[in-house]
Amino acid sequence: MRTHRRTTPDTGADSAPPLTVRSTLATLWPYLTEFPGRVVLAMSLLIGAKLAGVWLPQLLKHLVNAMSGKGLAAGAVLAVPLGLLLAYGFVRFLNVLFGELRDVVFGKVAERAQRRAALRVFEHLHRLDLEFHLSRRTGGLAREIEKGVDGISFLLRFSLFNILPTLLEIALVAAILWKQYDIRFAGVALVSVLLYIGFSVWVTEWRTAFVREANTMDARANSRAIDSLLNYETVKYFGNERWEAQRYDDSMASWEKATARNRLSLSSLNTGQSLIVAGAITAMMWLAAQDVTQGRMNIGDFVAVNAYMVQLFVPLNFLGFVYREIRRALTDMQKMFGLLGQHSRVQDAPDATAITAQRARVSFERVSFGYSPARRILDGVSFEIPEGKKLAVVGASGAGKSTLALLLFRFYDPDAGHIRINGRDLRELTQDSVRALIGVVPQDTVLFNDTIEYNIAYGRPGASRAEVERAARQAHLDHFIALLPEGYDTLVGERGLKVSGGEKQRIAIARALLKDPPILILDEATSSLDSAAEQAILGALREATERRTTLVIAHRLSTITDADEIVVLDRGRIVERGTHFELLARQGAYARLWAHQREQTQDGAAAAVPAEPLPVE
Question: Is the pLDDT of residue 15 over 60?
Answer without folding.
Answer: no
